Amino acid sequence: MNTTAGARDPVEPDIGGLAEVVPEAGAVAKRVAVVPVRDGVVPLGADEAVAEAGGVALIVGTGTRAAAEALRAVVSGTLVEAGAFAPGRWARGLARALAAHHCVILPGSPDGRDLAPRLAAELGRPLLPGAVRVSDGGAEVVRWDGRVSVELAVEGPFVATLLPGVRGVHAVDGTPDLVESSADHQHAEDAASVEVLAPDPATADLAEAPRIFGAGIGLGDARAVAVMARVAAALGASAGATRAVTDADWADAERQIGTTGVVVNPELYVAFGVSGAVQHTSGLGDPAHVVSVNTDPSCPMTAMAHLGIVADAPAVLSELAARLGV
Ligand SMILES: Cc1cc2nc3c(=O)[nH]c(=O)nc-3n(C[C@H](O)[C@H](O)[C@H](O)COP(=O)(O)OP(=O)(O)OC[C@H]3O[C@@H](n4cnc5c(N)ncnc54)[C@H](O)[C@@H]3O)c2cc1C
Question: Of the residues 148, 182, 216, which one is the last residue of a structural domain?
Fold first, then answer.
């Protein structure tokens, strides 16, 4: 591992020493992923953004080394310990170091979406938000809730955010080259975080939920879907649904998972009365654990599940609700 401690630059708004550890323009990779981290926690979609940038990453925030070690796609990275999330200050501090990179990619996580427009403004570049693919000449973005794909071509450098759960990641072998830098600009003015609240699974953005219960039309009625949502909330999971369920108005359209709904990437997905149509499963990402509760043992959802429970889904949920007291 190549580790170099960068000297601090006392001149605001540069993030200390960063310019010194960034190679000369000719040697700079065309693409770089900027990954904002809090306390070493890797944000949603970070690995995909790094992979899209060819493994070149600039990891900024707190706990950057732990984050770099958790990322699977980093080939070479600059670690910038920059204190608490401060998008305005970070954008000003990072702009100089990023100016040589043609294409700056951020994950479409909350912090990535916050930092990206500020970076674009600092760099004087266009922002291509919500990309599903980035090329040197622009990006493919989706609009109208994923129903339309648009190729955005730009001349010159740009900043893009990449939608999480779309591109996937191939882990790279070997130990990444990491270069450390630091920052100490507590006095620079910026937006201040008053409080960070834990997300409420019932209202959290499905795309960012680590656990999801999915309602299928096999639940039979809106009441059973509501029971599922209560059970999910009691177990810290978010409630999603198939299009059949949202079309029936048993759940809001924003809860629809799939090609024409939200693309998710939870660790756990529990499907209740879901057949597993490709338009639904293609939006599921790559969950580590899939459970399917279905009366049909041979349906595609159960075939792809790690645990298949052949049972009446409303009855299972009623029992769970009774035991959980919800
Ligand atoms: C262009 C296009 C885009 C689409 N986009 C999406 C999309 O984004 N998302 C999406 O989800 N769909 C989408 N669809 C629809 C998709 O093709 C399926 O029709 C839909 O996903 C099926 O939903 P379902 O699994 O709830 O219903 P079904 O396919 O009808 O399956 C119901 C399941 O419930 C089971 N079941 C029945 N009774 C019970 C019971 N008592 N207990 C347990 N299990 C039971 C059945 O065995 C069955 O497996 C799209 C379709 C098209 C044409």
Answer: 182
Q: Output the pLDDT for position 299.
A: 98
The confidence score (pLDDT) of residue 249 equals 97
279 and 169 inside one domain: no
Ligand 1 midpoint to CA 256 (Å): 11
Query: Is 70 exceeded by the pLDDT of residue 1?
Result: no
pLDDT category at 189 given cuts 50, 70, 90 is low
Determine the pLDDT at residue 291.
98
Determine the distance separating the centroid of ligand 1 and the alpha carbon of 271, expressed in angstroms: 11
CA-closest residue to ligand 1 atom 11: 242
Q: Is 279 in the pocket of ligand 1 (CB under 6 A)?
A: yes
Considering only CA atoms, which of 108, 80, 109, 78 is closest in space to residue 93? 80
DSSP letters spanning 217-260: GGG-SHHHHHHHHHHHHHTT-EEEE-HHHHHTTSS-GGGBBSTT
Pocket test for ligand 1, best of 221, 243, 263, 281 (most atoms within 8 A of CB): 243
CATH number for position 75: 3.40.50.620
Question: Residue 166's closest CA among 148, 186, 146?
Answer: 146
Please give the distance, rounded to the nearest whole angstrom, from the Cα atom of residue 165 to the centre of ligand 1: 21
CA-nearest residue for atom 31, ligand 1, is: 275
55: its two tokens = 């493994």
Q: Does residue 171 share a domain with residue 30?
A: yes
| Within-domain flag for 115 | yes
Kindly report the pTM of this predicted structure.
0.67
Ligand 1 near 273 CB (within 6 A): yes
Q: Are residues 271 and 157 in the same domain?
A: no
Q: Determine the distance from the C-alpha atom of residue 315 to the mean position of all C-alpha atoms in its chain, rounded to a whole number.
A: 34
pLDDT tens-digit profile of 101-136? Answer: 999 999 999 899 999 999 999 999 999 999 999 999
Q: Whose CA is nearest to atom 43 of ligand 1?
A: 294
Distance CA 200, CA 125 (A): 35
